[in-house]
Amino acid sequence: MEAKVNLKQDPAYQKLQEFYNSNSDKINILKLSNKTMKDLINTAMALLLNLAKSRGVEEAMFSGKKINFTEDRAVLHIALRNRANRPILVNGKDVMPDVNDVLQHMKEFSEQVVSGQ
Description:
It comes from Eumeta variegata (Bagworm moth). This protein has 117 residues and is mostly helical.
């Protein structure tokens, strides 16, 4: 997730900031209609996804880059959802075989619980 542009200079961030600036003082959740709230949420989500794409978050997640700055590690929960089983490399090692082993053990354990063993 190499930042090509300073975040505040990123056009996707600027659009999100403009949306916030133009809506933040208007939002009173108790007074908003369901449709208005859905429209605001949908717009905010679209802007957030656009910002994530602009910043290269998906590529960084799937390439095992350390983007979890709080814990100084990769965000490997995406490996649990990697049903295509494509390699996810962390420090040059594919973590998918280990993930698949753990998922298989979880499946076996849950089957034992359900069957009463």
